[in-house]
Amino acid sequence: MNPLLEGHALHTRRQFFGRSAMGVGTAALASLLGRDGFASTTPSSLIPRSGIPGLPDFPNFAPKAKRVIYLFQNGAPSHVDLFDYKPKLREWHGRQIPDEVAGGKRFSTMTGTQTKRPVLGEISKFARHGKSGAWVSDFLPNIASISDDLCFVKAMHTEAVNHAPAITFFMTGSEMAGRPSMGAWLSYGLGSETQELPAFVVMTSRDKEASCGQAFYDFYWGSGFLPTKYQGAAFRGAGDPVLYLSNPNGMSRSVRRGMLDDLAHLNEIKRAEFGDPEITTRIAQYEMAYKMQASVPELTDFSKESEATLAMYGPEVRRQGSYAYNCLMARRLAERGVRFIQVMHAGWDQHRNLNSQLKIQCDDVDAPSAALIKDLKQRGLLDDTLVVWGGEFGRTPFLQGKIEDTKNWGRDHHPYAFTQFMAGGGVKPGISYGQTDEFGFNAIENKVHVHDLQATILNQLGIDHEKLTFRFQGRQFRLTDVHGHVVRDILS
């Protein structure tokens, strides 16, 4: 048999249908190439910095925010030591927490079998701040100073009692890894405002003491079953922010351009043969990488920042990979049209070192967090930027360990009540929403679930959370699963 005819005869059913379904993929690729070009002769400086569109009819209504900066505090800040002032804790210090409050609740294995659960009073000092009179710990003086710009959500609650499932729940709407992250959903639905940078960028940092073993898993910013072009671009904390940003020795930018053009042609041949949408993604990602070779060095150059601005973020701002550095980068990314900026900082896991490590952790994040919000406000960006600050759960009002062992005081994971705060993006400033019981143990008034927070974030970006869906394995999936209500009381 003729080898060419034999090749056609051996085509599989999957290959046949893959080729038959090329029409939509070809149209999408033509749109991509019409915008970027394989070998465009137009200088990049003359190409308009217009965005890449998302889904038709998105946003569903006029948005209040264009972008989100999520300052995620891995490990869970202690709400009863920082934001949720409860005099009852000091009054009951050392006494067993009442069974009617804590009885029957599920905790991590570290206190799940602990029979004695003495109440632990706050280890910081609280005071009211601003015209709003918000209660904030003296461990966070800079955040306290901007309390009138903040909306404290004090009756958050969740379901998971361990870190990775709880963080995954916040980031993807599911405790199990494999679902698209919030930034991926937003990139898919709304597209990008810029062609020079990804729509979704992630930066991570950790406490200098490495006091806890929290890991950063890729699925915290993954695309799940969405095309991989929607996953977060993780900027590194050392060296080039993105791998292979620099050309190898001896390769000029024009040579790199020619190589990418040839590679794109080869990828197009394969895409035409198999109809695989991931090949289209690969072409787009190579093009983005080429553009980032020019845009990222300018992005990371702080030389034009004023000394006053740098000082506001704190002494660590020039250290690549620090939380302060990442907060300033977040503002610069927001200015350049990045849609979702996820800044994650690990170290909030004070099981046996509450008396020593909590204050150190607060010192790491206090000034940079407040500086970011003030900086956005000064530049007129806060109105259309939604900033969210918080962790995956709270910490127990009772002690992990023994009350007489003060050196090893700690608090366990606590999903039943905790605090997050928000700023900008159409959220009411200067309010505290929700209430916990007198021990800070249970959310009792205006409770806000994780899915409610997710629905509210999407709402501020002009998205009806029930309409942002993707069909996978025979059903329509969404970030909020089949749950979630927009918390309209906190919206202006």
Keywords summarizing the entry:
single chain; about 500 residues; alpha/beta; Alkaline Phosphatase, subunit A; 2 domains; 9-stranded mixed sheet; two-stranded antiparallel ribbon
Task: Explain the overall architecture.
The chain has 492 residues and is of the alpha/beta class. The protein has 2 domains: 56-241 and 321-490, Alkaline Phosphatase, subunit A (3-Layer(aba) Sandwich), CATH 3.40.720; 242-299. The protein has 15 helices and 19 strands. It has helices spanning 3-9, 13-20, 22-36, 79-82, 87-91, 99-102, 141-145, 163-172, 182-190, 253-274, 277-299, 307-313, 323-335, 354-378, 450-460; strands at residues 52-53, 67-74, 126-129, 134-137, 151-157, 191-192, 200-206, 233-235, 340-346, 385-390, 394-395, 413-414, 418-423, 431-433, 435-436, 443-445, 448-449, 470-472, 475-477. Strands 2, 5, 7, 8, 9, 10, 13, 14 and 17 form a 9-stranded mixed sheet that branches. Strands 1-6 form a two-stranded antiparallel sheet. The N and C termini lie far apart (74 Å).
Q: How would you summarize the topology of this molecule?
A:
Blueprint: H1 3-9, H2 13-20, H3 22-36, E1 52-53, E2 67-74, H4 79-82, H5 87-91, H6 99-102, E3 126-129, E4 134-137, H7 141-145, E5 151-157, H8 163-172, H9 182-190, E6 191-192, E7 200-206, E8 233-235, H10 253-274, H11 277-299, H12 307-313, H13 323-335, E9 340-346, H14 354-378, E10 385-390, E11 394-395, E12 413-414, E13 418-423, E14 431-433, E15 435-436, E16 443-445, E17 448-449, H15 450-460, E18 470-472, E19 475-477
Parallel strand pairs: 2-9, 2-10, 5-14, 5-17, 7-8, 7-9
Antiparallel strand pairs: 1-6, 3-4, 5-13, 10-13, 11-12, 15-16, 18-19
Helix pairs in contact: 3-11, 10-11, 13-14
